[in-house]
Each structure stands twice: as structure tokens, then as C-alpha cells.
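User: We ran a pulldown and think these components assemble together. Before we commit to crystallization trials, I'd like a predicted model of the whole complex to look at. Sequences follow.
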Amino acid sequence: MHEEKSGFNKLGLTISILFIFLYIFVFSGVLYPELSVQPLWRIPLDAYETKNEYSIYSETVPAGLLSFHTPKYFGYFSKGGKLFLLGLNDSKAAVSDRAFVLKRPHEKENSHELYRSDGSPVQSFSADNTFFYGDLLFSAEAGGCGLASYDEFGHKLWSYLFPSQISAFGAVSDLAVAGTVDGYLEGVGKEGKEVFTFAPGGSRLEIILGLGLSSSGKYIATVSGIDKQRLVIMKKGGVDYKVSSHMYLDSDYREPVRVIVMEDDKHVLYRRNDGIGLMSVDGKVNKVLPVLADDFSESMDKKRNISYILVKNGIQARIAAFRLPSTLLGNINLPDSCDYVHIEGQRVYFVKDDYIAAFEFTEE
Amino acid sequence: MVSGRPGHKTLVTLAVIPVLLLIASMAFSMDWPVENGRYNYGFGAFRGRFLPGLELPLDGSPVIAPDDGELIFHVTGSDILGSYPVSGDSLLVLQHNSGLLSIYSGLVPDSLTEYLKSFRKGDILGKSPQKNAMTIAASYMFDNKDRRFINPLILMPPLKDDKTPVLRNIALVGEGQEYMLDSDRNIRQGSYKLVMEATDLSPGAMQSACWEIRILIDGSEKSRVQYDAAWASGGKGYLFGSSSIAESSFFAQDGRISFGPYNFSRGRLVVTIIAMDYAQNKREQSYSLSIF
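Assistant: Here's a predicted model for the assembly, 656 residues in total across the polymer chains.
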């Protein structure tokens, strides 16, 4: 039985490597001549048996574990392609690279258990809907108007009630910012106190549709309002934030809009009708990347000064490579219905149905 | 009674006048979100905290626009772009000409009429979930100008209601002791909070709060709250436009509402509690106490 499984795995591995090879080199879009992709590895998840809530498949904890979660699974793998932990995502686990939270449906209402990424339990705690933003653990409270912050041990640090329902959210280590349905941005400091309140205004109807924070906390960008919609970029000055640049948009979104302050702390990406907008934080650069996207995320290869943007349109996903400010180097399609994609530097990890795969952009 | 932040109360009092004018101009002009004004829990019910809206019946009922309005936001799914969770997997917000927002969470995601930008009064917005969906659907009326949730009873057509509010588990709490008022009438002098369950079982709801509660000691009014509005400021919740009470001080840990503290000195006194619902049904209970 064991040999059959092993044989199956070898065959599966061969087919999957062939599949990835074909997918990347035959079905993908056109890449800039100097840029190519190199398949790295594939982990077939269905070859692993998950016991209880999760199972661990390595005696030692690899360094730099990456997390993933899909409607079916959650877990951790190494960058080298070894599966470390796999669980069935029955209770909608909240997962970060450092820790995960499982809901305890049969115990006290809203009971959760916090675990480290190595699978060791940390603490049971009571919360509403927990979620990670990066490695920061929060929970949603008060019917979508509240936010609670927790430390790495699952202790509640603070709880904050916003005036109306939250429509956009972003956080860095010492600042959490929520946009609300009545058109305000409100920042909360690490002590759980109000840091600032700001209403972008300037539109017939006020609403915050999206926001992004720079990793330094220096910039906040938001898309707000209806008729007309606005992109507003704010810069930290002392304890408060002041508008550093703004622009009216042609869009008429009435749903969440992705806004990202790029890793270089100099540019903002935002969703627009004709592509992904790129604006420098001082407003001097204003370009459109010709990539239509319902949603996107960004990762920067600083060594090569290339920005990789994961573009999602419905079930389709692809990665577009840009050299700033707006030189498209090419793009590569990912399999439809990718459940999870993570870009780190020039490496791309994705989960599709029952496998995790990785490839790498290389410059020739 | 515990009030809000210093200076806050004065501002709140000043803000009450335009709120009342706004409310008066819109009184009864809107429709209930579910036919016949049915809801499970009403404004002010204790649902782990002060419910600043209505919890809708879990029976798949169509939920309608209370007035003409414009869709300004909708999201379905478990979270907002991978971050903040969406309560009940859906959120829909309408802006009305009056300056009010009507906000709906937890409607069945597939049922949302999010493809329309403009809604007429009575248009279907979506459906409430069934009971077995293990989720909660709620609607809220939000005054955009003063950034506060408004009790829908003020805005929606009056409901037939001939049931008086119910007062239960009334007690004085002080110095680590709790004295139930239906049995303990001899109480040591000191400072006490008055706690109670005060609910209104109107025909349209499983449970709601009263509209008004007054506390009288020896005939003199010491506290009065009117369940008209709830809002947040500086991260904290506040209740009742005319009195501005911090939400954290209004609820005891067990969910009972709390008034005071009151200082009781030696002698006899009469504590009277008057609870009234929005249809003016009134319950009055008095307790004669001996303070030693």
C-alpha cells in the first residue's frame, strides 16, 4: 500500500512538473526577453493525510516558514518546498507566517486557540471574528464597527469602537487605520487611542472604498467618495496626517477598492477602470499600468528594481512584471482559481486545489 | 449616572437640537426593513453590547429599502479584500436624501441587489438568512451628519403595541453586595447602583429595549434615559442623545442596565422606576427602602 502510494506520488510529481513547465512556457503571456521563469518545486497536498485539526510532517522546524490558507486547507511550507504543517480549514482558520488561530466551535461561544507556526499551542482566548493583517492579530467586533488588537500571546491589548461600519482597513505595527461607510478615516495607535480622524470629503457621497498604509506608517492612501471618486495620499507630519497629493478619478466603484502604498514608500497603486493606477506620493508621477484588475497585490524585487504585481480578475490570476514607473516587462498567467498566491522577491508560491507550487523569475 | 468625556456632554446637548429637528422632519416617513415591522431584537437590546440597530428575523424574509436611496457600498464574502471580516458575509449601505444611511449586514450574499445604484422605497435589497445559517442579519439607521445610529422606532411607522415593558432582576449594587429589591428592603447607608433588566416585548420583536426609563427617588427624578441614539467617539461607545452615557458604564457584566450611583443616607426612601415603550405603554414599580 505504501509502495503504491509512493509510486503514485512519483508519477504525480512527474506529471505536475511537466504541467508547470508546459503551463509556464507554453500557455503563459510574453515576458520581457531578459526575464524568464524557472519552475522550482511542487507539493501535492492530497498525498498527505491530515489527522485531527492539523498534522506536522517534519521533526525539525524549517526556517522562514510561509503560511497559506485556502477554502480547503491551511498550513505552512518551507521556501525550499517541504510541507511542514497541514490542516483542514473547516473552522476558517486565521493564518499568518508566525501563528494561526483556530475556532473552537464546540466550546464556549467565540472561543479560539492561538498556535505558533510550529504547531505549539499558545493560548485560548475569546474573540469575535479573528484575522491577521500581516503578522498582527485582530478581531472584528460590534457588528463590523469595532476592532480589537491582540499581542503574540493572544492577550487583548485594546478594543476600539468606530462610529460606523468599517469599509476599509490597513495596519502596521503601531497604527491601525479603518475607513468607515460614512466617509472617515480613523487611526488607532498601539495603545488603542485615537491618533487621527480625517474625512477626505470633496465628493457628492462620502464613503471610504479602500486604503493602504506604507510599511513605515509614513503614508496613507485612500480611494473615497462617489461622484466624483478621489485618490487622496496623506503624509505623516508630527502626530497627524496631512494631504500630500490628491486626484479626482473617473471610476464609480461602490465596492472595496484595492489601494497599496508600494514597498519603496514612494508610489501608490490603486484600482481604476483602465488598469492599475500608479501615482507617486508627491503627485508628480501619474501613470496607468495597462493591466485590468479586480484586485491585486504587489511585491518588489529591490535588487533588480522590478515590481511584481499579482493581478486577479474573477477566477483568473496572473503576475505582471514592471520596471518603475510603468515599463511592463511582461506577464505570466497562473492557473485559474488559484486559491492562494504569495510573491516574495522574484519567487512566486501558489496553491491550486490540492498542490502548492513555486517558480522564480530569473534575468538572463 | 456616568457621563461622557469632559466637555463632551455640553457639545452633545447642543447637537441634540438639530438631531431632534432632523428626526422630527423624518418621523415615520420610512418603511420597516421587513414587512409588518418584524425583527428579532430591537434598538438597545443587549446582544453582548448595546445593539444600535435591529436584528432581522431569520426566516428568509425579503428586506426592503426604507426610502429612496443610492447604493454607496456593498461587499460580499468573508472579508474586505483579505483583511477585516465581513459580519454575516455581506454588507450593503444606502445613502438617503435625508442624510441618513441605512446599513444592512448579514443578508444572504447571493440575494443582494447590488447591481442597482438607485433604489426606490420598497425595493428589495436582499433576503435575511434562514435560522440554520448560523449567522445574524441586522439593519441600522445612521445619521450621517451627527455620526450616530438612530432608533428606527423614530423613523418607521408606529407598530401596534399594547404590552407594557417588563422590569426584572432589579437590585441595588454597592460595596460588593447585591440587594434584590423584591426581598431586601433594609439596606446599609452608602453609594449604590440600581441595576435591572428592562425589556419591551412588542408584537414585532422577540425582545427590545424600552423607549424611556426614569428613576425617581422620593419623587424626585434622578436619572432619565431615552433610547434615541448611540454613537462612538474616541473609540468608546456612548448612548442616549440627551444624557450621553458611556456604554461601558451602562451595562453591568451580566447585561443588566445600570443607573447611578446614588448616595443613600439613613432613613426611609422610595425608589420608583418608570419604564415606557414607544407606544406609551408604561410600567411603574416602586420600592420602599429602610436605610440604616
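Chain B has two domains: 8-155, 166-291. That may be worth checking against your pulldown data before setting up trials.

User: Thanks, that helps.
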